Amino acid sequence: MKDNNQRFASWQSPSNIALVKYWGKKGQQLPANPSISFTLDNALTHTQIEAIQTENQSQVSIDFYFENAKNPAFESKILAYLEIAKSEFNWLANHKLIIYSKNTFPHSSGIASSASAFSALALCLCDLHEQIIGVSLPNFFEKASYWARIGSGSACRSIYGGFNLWGHSNNITNSSDLHAINIDEQIHQNFKTLTDTILIVEKGKKSVSSTQGHALLKEHPFAKLRYELADANTHQLLSILKNGDIKAFIGLVESEALMLHALMMTSPTPFILMKPNTVAVLEKIWEFRNQTDLNLLFTLDAGANVHLISTAEHNEQVQNFVKNELVGYCQNGLYFRNATGQGPKNIKNA
Asked: Which CATH architecture has domain 194-339?
């Protein structure tokens, strides 16, 4: 039997891939421009938290285990996050948290592992809050999206399945800088079954973190123009997602990916996260698309790895292309297949 002074929560939450990129922030993890993403089904973080009641303490107390081992670097980030979260989850002052977390994909390599990690953590916090306080949160997932954002901006988009928008933009109903909203009802059937094969060009830790990259954009000479373009691209992509124009989708998404990395390379302190094999993969994708006229495209997050996106009817041809032409550019031949995901799952009886 579980002790009455102990509570458990366990959530599995996905990564997501941004189509219009979030790059640049203001205030407390607020976006400088809106972004649109879709959720993945196979790039996941599973987080379990045991909350043990204690005496009141001046600081949050945790033991953190990643892949079944203590991880001091991650633990310090989570402690700092929970100190902020204590303003809402005041029971953190008299509970110790034992946190276990694991991924199905590499972390810190530009595949939005922070999105899945902090969304899973925020969902566990909201779950524990309901158990400890004894009151249901009226907007559980919106609250989880809000607190996921505080940990990692893009994490707020991982709280929902399918397509999600984060960031206020004029004439987009309910859009908010504070949390993401789901836009699946607006999506044309052409985009309902997208697949995303993540090609692991480099598995190791990025040379420049996303946090550092966001900070560099503040002094970027193109920052203001970028924010305006991202807002315009958000409206344009929403229109494309509604009308089902695949060719327009390909052009806009690839442009957004290349613009993101161009901003990095033209920062006041320039940096390059793409690797030679990244560029080789992009050129191979362009060549293959020109030869076959298949509906496939690439996007990039803030890292060297490539997301190869395609529509479901081309799955077999695309996977043969990956195996025959692209796997040689991947570190140790590593790649991950994903479909459009349904969102987080509450893992019962963890």
From this structure: 2-Layer Sandwich (3.30)
